[in-house]
Hints:
Chain A is α/β, with parallel strands linked by helices. Helix content of chain A is 33%, strand content 27%.
Amino acid sequence: MFAVIMAGGKGARFWPRSREKMPKHLLDILGEQTIIQETVERIRPLVPAERTLIVTGQSHAAELMRQLPEIPAENILIEPVGRNTAPCIGLAALHIQRRAGDAVMLVLPSDHRIGDEDGFRRVLKAAAQAADSEDCLVTIGIRPTGPETGYGYLEQGEPFAAIGEDDLFRVRSIREKPPREEAERFLAQGGFLWNSGMFAWKASTILQSIGRHLPELERGLAKIREAIGTDREADVLGRIYRELPSVSIDYGVMEKARDVLIVPGSFGWSDLGSWDALWEISRKDGRDNAVRGSFIGIDAARSLVHSPGKLVALVGVEDLLVVETDDALLICRRGHSQDVKKVVETLEKEGREEYL
Amino acid sequence: MFAVIMAGGKGARFWPRSREKMPKHLLDILGEQTIIQETVERIRPLVPAERTLIVTGQSHAAELMRQLPEIPAENILIEPVGRNTAPCIGLAALHIQRRAGDAVMLVLPSDHRIGDEDGFRRVLKAAAQAADSEDCLVTIGIRPTGPETGYGYLEQGEPFAAIGEDDLFRVRSIREKPPREEAERFLAQGGFLWNSGMFAWKASTILQSIGRHLPELERGLAKIREAIGTDREADVLGRIYRELPSVSIDYGVMEKARDVLIVPGSFGWSDLGSWDALWEISRKDGRDNAVRGSFIGIDAARSLVHSPGKLVALVGVEDLLVVETDDALLICRRGHSQDVKKVVETLEKEGREEYL
């Protein structure tokens, strides 16, 4: 079994900590380790470092290797440009087939937070087992804890089989991020799961599905396959990848495929999409302040403070997200962290590259 | 005519910019210049540097001289310990008598903000003229613009004389900082002025008044007078000053003296007592943000941002006081800046000297 970690994200929503050169998964906002270090370590009991592949962009490869010295350099697959998840997964599948003939691959985002690691691994294992024995596309659905509008949803179909402690279901439909009322209806109705963006399938299965639903991508991948391992590899990859359709695996394959199964799981999952999400999952003091760094609160409550190396005093304030770096300070009302991207847009518009 | 600037203050209310080593009057929170530089420059048309005395503590003398190179070193009078305003003024009066026999002295705090400098100098001039011709204690009262509870009040008595464009009044009473209802009554009733802590009198007049109302202070000053200019000066000052009663000129002399006159003035005065006061008097943008430094506001309003050298982004917040230094960050709800001293008290209690 292989693991493929997709580390192409930019993470502007964690500005000012996240920057173009330092996207979310390379940051240590959750604790001692960076998010990708936690991601790799979390699957270690299932997949050793030699079979863990990471797909990333050129500009982050060096920092990624620095953070993950145990991952062999040839396991870092570099996309010449970002082309969304379908080409990324296709490229990884080619490499796995070349190394192992065929194998199950777990496909994981680089930047999620998992509360219950044992539960997470159990679900992954069940998904991999189903992918292997049923020759199908398996997606992992998260049992929702609220009517989130920031996630896509999977509608569960009939039970397919029981695998160990877990059940396997057919997929009835895949839904884009819904408006609030629809999300509430999903929850009330039951049978809907959050789309985690985590998958298990054999390399051969996903490449066949790409061939069926994304023939243009298949043609590009075929050219890349021929070049892998030759001295034309970098050249061909650089030329062909740029021409590949930029499409997500959800939209390009999963929504169209028939042979999709779901393993539902509950393991304290969050896609860690914003400073608000970080406050939600952080350990808090008696006034519900989540603090990283030296802190004095006078009538201060329900705030996130991320300011390593500087004393922060909050006086008479509540519901703030406070994030400080060497060159920038963000103070955002809690619940408004989706607007942090407006700050980044303003900086882009004003050409203030040094803050991007 | 001499000017005596009292620069003994600590200014914990401007933490984290103000520190034990760097009190408010040594900071540039108002603009390009530090507050004491502005204070000295403001009176320059009336009093040259050679006749401007500054009374301060040992630990601030060097920085003060650095900021005010035009003030002769012998004009920096160093108090061995802080003993409130009466001993400070008495010491300055001794030095003035020794240099000039006798002269009018303007007594000014080091850390006020004045909007109308011409108006301010006109009132000072009128006060000095009255102090000279009437041989009395003259205090400057500010026509109130609101029922402030942070200032003491002067109750105006009968008119005494007209001096140029200004009028001179007797004082009926001197009131401590009043509760809100009383301050409102003062304003409704009229005839009450804010006590600015600015005075004019001859050196001989104030020393006589000290003799009458503070005989213990007079005895101490007499010993210091004998030593000034001798090689015993530092020794005697160090020994005697410590024993002087710690008392304000208001409480020790002005409230008891009969020969007190007021010149009322309106010249955009503020005692600049807090970050809230600074926001009030600062120039603001269209959303009422007063900003020093690089700034991006997304739905941000009515806030003060003092963060030289760092980009600050406010998102969805209002009514915040944000002050950043190399080692500390304060975020305080506007209207709560009196609680900043609680932060300083906490730091003292925890023995975190590096932040004091």
